[in-house]
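Look over both lines before class:
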Amino acid sequence: MNMKKLFTLLLFCASLTQGYAMNAASTGSKASKEYTDKLVVTINGESSPEQTTKITVETPKDGIMNITLPNFCLSAGEDMMYVGTIKVNEIPLTASGLYNTFTTNQTIQIEAGDIPIEGMWLGPMLGDVPLQMVGKISDDKFYTTIDIEMVLLGQTIHVVFGTDDFGSSIHSALSEKQMQTTNVYTLQGILVKGNVEKAHALDGLQKGIYIVDGKKVIKK
């Protein structure tokens, strides 16, 4: 098998990864969460088709996370290269508004995967593998780029998981929240309740007429 050719024409095995991730989340002892999104792998300027897959994130303590990208494999036609499970631990998180950012440069050792395969897992034979990881994470969204240096193969694997649209996502979330809240004024323009849910805007107020969303509302 020509390894460099195989790495040039690549396809991420998302179905294998998804099966592992579901099992890992159910059996892990640490607090963990799965993020599902699109993943693209690029080598020597050629990219794989988008694949939906999962990354597991563990938070062993405040300000620190561990990530697992399980059963990573590449294929070209009928040829398959089973790389293994990529784990990056002790990644420091930096608060940035409604999400955290992270950057880490580490040397890792890729572990064998835990699913049945025809052949061998390549990762454990690669020894020390330099890796750079940059990204953002919130409660419901995870974005990262991972550059993996395969020194023995003379290749750099560039992995992108998710999309870097945190600004628009947060803006949408804030806009939605703002649409669900309002201010309540007296007829004299005095604010009596601020930033309250519309459904409960008049709760606790005395009977009378109030201004809600620019309209007169009668509290009976």
User: Anything to note?
Assistant: Residues 39 and 161 are 4 Å apart (CA to CA). The first strand starts at residue 32 and ends at 43. The radius of gyration is 25 Å. Confidence is low (pLDDT under 50) at residues 1-12, 14-29.
